[in-house]
Amino acid sequence: MRRKASLVLLACAVFCAALAPLMRWYAFPRLARIPANQYQDMVLEAKGATLLDYGSLHARKVSKVTIVQTLKGNVEAAKKIEKTAGRPVVVWDSLSYVQGPDGKMVSRVPERYIFDAHSQDPVHATGEMVDGDPVTRQGIEFKWPFLTQKRDYEYFDAQTRTTGPIHYKGTQTFRGLKVYYFEQTIPWTKVPMPKTMPVQGITPETVARTGTTRWYSTVRRFWVEPVTGAPVYGEELHQEELRGGTLLGGRAKVTAFAGDVKMREDYIEHTVALVKHNRTLVLTLTSYVPWGSLAAGLLLLALALYLEARARRPQDPTPTQATEPEPVSA
Amino acid sequence: MRALIAAATGLALALALVLAMTAMGTPSGRTSPEPLLSTVPSHP
Predict the structure, then answer these.
(1) Does pLDDT of A314 surpass 90?
(2) Closest partner residue to A36 among B3, B22, B29, by Cβ?
């Protein structure tokens, strides 16, 4: 009976011990994925910002500029690209809609971002674009990979359409979560005019004819929860200028936008709650189940060996029957 | 020999469980009908 029980315990021990690495290195990369149908919006605000008045072409202080950023997973496009890419793909159609204090549109920049659902590596396919311009992204955008490391990453900047390093600057605590702080500085760079301008009748082509160019600089900061790779907070010290040309009436440059863009408070709370929930799911695959099953496996193995040892212990010696000596015959 | 069979059974069950879980995968769902926003939402 004991030997049978020890064999069952041994089978359970091997099951648990095998489950640990299988869950961490086989199941985790296949199960931890960005959902293809994700839909997410985010509101960022720049209070006390400087904004160009396109009527007078003079910069003025405004109470607030609001940026509404929407990400929408395009499932049909993802399935189509997956067939050729041979790996799970997420296609995000996004829109960054900038609105002035009067509620009028300042700019609207659509993007299509295609990436690997687990590793976040960019996937290149037709349709990848920023504001209608085809791009070939390198590095990450919007989100870091699962199990983010304490190192610099390559981050794609949509304004310049280039990729540059975003530096790991330390570990901090943000609203009870351990986060990695990253920072990227984009130096003053000439960038294209948005395809959709805030004044009707003005197009990037008409501006280009005046010789006026658009320049941009930013300091981008992200606080990233390392298990999920999700930024829980972000800020951008964003500056834009129009430089040269006849449009500025002899001035060398004019500020088009300057402000410290921050996430709105209710969105910070929502994001932190969402990330805390998703963190538990990812930890289940990477930590709770692997370590738990490994510990259970060792415990069961010890129990199986103990029962086996007891089953093999020699029994108490049984009394031997006294045999009568046989008569010796000559 | 019986110990080997027991260990192999445990290993096979673990493999079967993980393979079944990953084969089911994550549902891709459908594209959200929600639009890309051009108004400021009042709450998340």
Answers:
(1) no
(2) B29
